[in-house]
Description:
The structure holds 2 protein chains of 2 kinds.
Chain A: H1 3-8, H2 22-25, H3 31-35, H4 37-47, E1 50-53, E2 59-62, H5 65-73, E3 78-79, H6 108-116, H7 122-125, H8 129-141, H9 144-148, E4 153-154, H10 156-160, H11 162-172, H12 179-191, H13 197-220, H14 226-232, E5 234-235, E6 238-239, H15 242-273, H16 275-283, H17 288-298, E7 303-308, E8 312-314, E9 317-319, E10 324-328, H18 329-332, H19 367-384, E11 388-390, E12 398-399, E13 407-409, E14 411-414
Parallel strand pairs in A: 2-10
Antiparallel strand pairs in A: 1-2, 3-7, 4-14, 5-6, 7-10, 8-9, 11-14, 12-13
Chain B: E1 3-7, H1 17-21, E2 26-28, E3 34-36, E4 41-42, H2 47-55, E5 62-65
Antiparallel strand pairs in B: 1-4, 1-5, 2-3
Amino acid sequence: MSxxxxxxxxxxxxxxxxxxxxxxxxxxxxxxxxxxxHEIWAELRGTCPVAHSDRYGGTWLPTTHxxxxxxxxxxxxxxxxxxxxxxxxxxxxxxxxxxPPITSDPPFHIEARKLLLPPFAPKKIELWEPEVRxxxxxxxxxxxxxxxxxxxxxxxADYAKRIPVxxxxxxxxxxxxxxxxxxxxxxDVLEGIDDAPEVRFVKIERLIxxxxxxxxxxxxxxxxxxxxxxxxVELFGEKxxxxxxxxxxxxxxxxxxxxxxxxxxxSLWHLANNPDDLARLIADPSxxxxxxxxxxxxxxxxxxxxxVAKDHDFHGCPMKVDDWVLLPFxxxxxxxxxxxxxxxxxxxxAENRHSAFGLGIHRxxxxxxxxxxxxxAIEEFIDRFPSFTLGGTEDDVVWSVGQIRGPRELPVQVLxx
Amino acid sequence: MPMRIHVDAEKCQGHNRCYALAPELFxxxxxxxxxxxxxxxxxxxxxxxxxxxxANCPEFAITISE
Lengths: 417, 66
């Protein structure tokens, strides 16, 4: 294991042991999992389409499109009340869960979701385009000195990561100066899954206290942002509880940042490694929309999770109440039964029924925003740097651990035009 | 008979692929869910776009009758 891989597993606690068999003992917090995800899923899909691990109190991993889709649509046998696999099952009961609506089940789910759909609908999100473009250009400006000096730049940490954190904190009306704090929260929630429960509790509590302070600030100073919006809307004729507002804000903050950052980073990683695709996009920008969808298919960042709600047999797997089930939408997107040439990245793929944003009632609420940010981030990056390559070897690329997959450090060397 | 498109409101989850690919044929409501424009009739020159929208819907919510 290289030093970079060791550093990315800093969140692992003492009882973490490296995985030796992915079919019977997988751990998505093992740094090798996200680094080698495509190979691991392909192997499992062919031999053991539903893997199992005793880790996290028992976790299942389906790897075919058919099975992922079936579970995503089945809200009777699987509950969303917790969606991040961790060592202790969170206490928040169904049907609301801790971060509505992503942790909510029917029939409550749709009511909570309807409150948040309008601000994320396509025509509302389109309005953010100029601001996102300005943001991307500003980030690129700040990299120019290093590029001029011939140094490598970090396209993940200094570009991809900065875009969604900036946009979502503006939407929520949180202080921009707290950007690094938000990134810590995201890391704690999504990558700290291997922490001992008491360590994890302290970290999550810090996030909750921060959100409560922001809500209190909005009580005193209401403004035109999503936080004030959530505090003003009604559900079943009443204002939302502080727990509901806070939970939804946690959802928007956590889900809005890591995911899009990962999609942008993976797309740039692909272009750094595939100069032909980069040259094609530069020569013919009309390919950007199909390229974006293909990057979303192949490098879909989000694996969701469910808890088993009822003991039942799932295609021969004896699933028990409170077993975790990972829903690897990216593995579904690579299933050759559904996608011709599934393992090839075809940036002009016209028919692309991918499920990067999930399937069924929990379709990613922020998908329109994510697509906007991803598209503009790629357009602006390749416009500024029409030729670039990896600034080092694959060992210098640090991949995330956990359910969100993408490069956390991505050294890029800009080449002369 | 002209080609007709239909969106199943029960299946549509607002992925917004049809509206992005064929805005002449599909619109979205305030929740971001798809609706067909007019009565769903597809002019001959847009038939390929209708098929493309169908082939990109992750929820299989679009049907075409010809």
